[in-house]
Structure formats: structure tokens, C-alpha cells
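Hey, resending since the last one bounced:
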Amino acid sequence: MEQTSEEAERWAAALTGSSDAFAWLFDLHRDRVYRHALRVLGSVHDAEDVTAGAFFELWRRREAVTVVEGSVLPWLLVTTSNLSRNAARSLRRYRSLLKSLPRSGPSRGAGEVAQDRLEASAGARQVRDALRALSPTDAALIAMTAFEGFSPSEVATALGISDGAARTRLHRARARVGSALERSGAEMLPSGTEEGAR
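The C-alpha cells again:
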């Protein structure tokens, strides 16, 4: 609770333009934002880009940021989810373009081999695909409750929807993701939290 109070004070200072306060917030939340982006994208490089983008948006849109219980982290994670989905769409278009180009030979670069190995590991691709099939709101609800430990109420506040709507959407989204993972044989998502144990 003390950290939330300090975070609220630092956020108030950041709103007045304090770069030191903003740097403190960056140091506080960078690792969680990065892990969230990495979980969605599966690429270290892309996760780094999305993390930088999320903090850029935090600074750029600071007057419109929704603070949840004194913390900007929920807003950052929702923004990270949205930026990650956009990055994944761009990457799919780029890969589609590359596949359509003529190739001189069957050789593959180290980056392609590494990406293939990452996607093949422990059902990560199936989880990402299941989350990408959801609406942005439902994907954020799943990711923030199952992976980040936020309660449905906290996520509802961050998303600007009612608590009841969040719980209903979360229940339906978990069922859809569970069915998709069951069909693919991947591990089920962690159960998350009902009331915000982080």
C-alpha cells in the first residue's frame, strides 16, 4: 500500500512534467510491462519495442490516463495489449509479404530458426493465438487477471467498463480460450485471481 501511495505522488509530479518522477515510474513498471508484451508477442525484440511504445503513450497521453487504486500499471498493461496486437498484425502482414517474394534457395536465417523454436515451446503459440482470437477487451481481461494478478474489478476500471460486464466477459472469454487450448492440446491458462492478489 505504501508503494501505491508513493506511486500516486510520483504520478502527480509526472503530470506537472517531472522527468525524474516519470523515470521512477518507468523503473517501477518496466519489467511487468515487458513480460506482458513478451507473453503476447513471443519475441524479445518486439516486446522491447512495445514496452518503449507503452511508456511513450503514458507520457504522451498522461492527461487522459486512468489511474486504478493509485497505480498507472493497469493502464500501461491495457496499452501494452493493444500495441502488442497491432505489432502482431503488422508482423503477420510482413511475413505474408516475405512468403510471396521469390527465394533463391532454401536457406533460413538464424532469426527465423530461433523464432520457430520459440513458437514451438510449451504451447506458447496456442495461447497467443487463442488470445488474439478474442476482442481487445476480452484479451486484456484474460491477460491481466490470469497472468498479471489483477482482479476483474481492477481491470474493469482500467478498461472503463462496469464490474458486472467485466466478470461476464471474463467468464465467457475464459471458456472460449479454454476450449481453444483443449482442442490444441496446450496447457490451460492460470486461474488468475478473483480479488487482486498481486
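The chain has two domains: 1-98, 121-198.

Sorry for the duplicate.
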